[in-house]
């Protein structure tokens, strides 16, 4: 059994009077990809914010390996090896692509290794080398997502939290981004917790999944098992009884992400 990099026990978080998530308990084992699925407003981003210290956890406990990081300062959490790629990317649009990447490594002292990591990132995303000197704000949405993920990698994290990496991307780019996410996990051993509305992509890439509805976890299992569950097929994969061909036809008339 591998150890857990991240453990949440009964975490709750609110926005003013609005309780967004309740009683969240989950585990992310070392070296794995874990996904949280759920529709708009289910509380996915809220969980990630409560973990990275960008939103106060009103109750419960967040453990990073054997350290209690509940409500620690976000910068301290980054130094301990946990990086959050937030929804909407939040790159620095006026800084160059290169400088955005360096911002990711600001807590590090190992300059030689930083240079090697930059090289490695350029092999994952060659476009970021080609555009290194341009303001990051001029990148396309997909390229900005690549930059946001790369900036997270520049911190050499043990664990990356990713919030909807597919947001606003074409199906082809979404596939590419997920391929890279899997490569990062396999080649660097980085543990990843990814939140997604694109359930098909997430269930393919991840090992284990949690399903969130109205701020509560309603289902958890290996992705291989989740993919076969009728509820998941119907509500998250858009597959009805009529089978895959029928679902494809149906998808064309609905806007599924
Ligand atoms: N800044 C905020 N102020 C007030 N309420 C918020 C805020 N952010 C989120 N909420 C509410 O908290 C609940 C959970 O939101 P959250 O953003 O975590 O959902 P989500 O699962 O990430 O949804 P999406 O898929 O749309 O990103 C929702 O009811 C949402 O309206
Ligand atoms: Mg969200």
Overview of this protein structure:
This protein is α/β, with parallel strands linked by helices and 257 residues long. The protein has a single domain, classed as P-loop containing nucleotide triphosphate hydrolases (Rossmann fold, 3-Layer(aba) Sandwich). A six-stranded mixed β-sheet has the order 6-7-8-3-9-10, with helices on both faces. Strands 2-1-4-5 form a four-stranded antiparallel β-sheet, covered by helices on one side. The chain is globular, with a radius of gyration of 18 Å. The structure holds adenosine-5'-triphosphate and magnesium ion (MG).
Question: Which helices and strands occur, and which strands form pairs?
Answer:
Layout: E1 4-15, E2 18-29, E3 33-37, H1 44-52, E4 59-64, E5 67-68, H2 74-79, E6 82-85, H3 97-103, H4 111-124, H5 126-130, H6 141-153, E7 159-163, H7 171-188, E8 191-196, H8 199-205, E9 208-213, E10 216-222, H9 223-228, H10 230-236, H11 243-253
Parallel strand pairs: 3-8, 3-9, 6-7, 7-8
Antiparallel strand pairs: 1-2, 1-4, 4-5, 9-10
Helix pairs in contact: 3-6
The structure holds adenosine-5'-triphosphate and magnesium ion (MG).
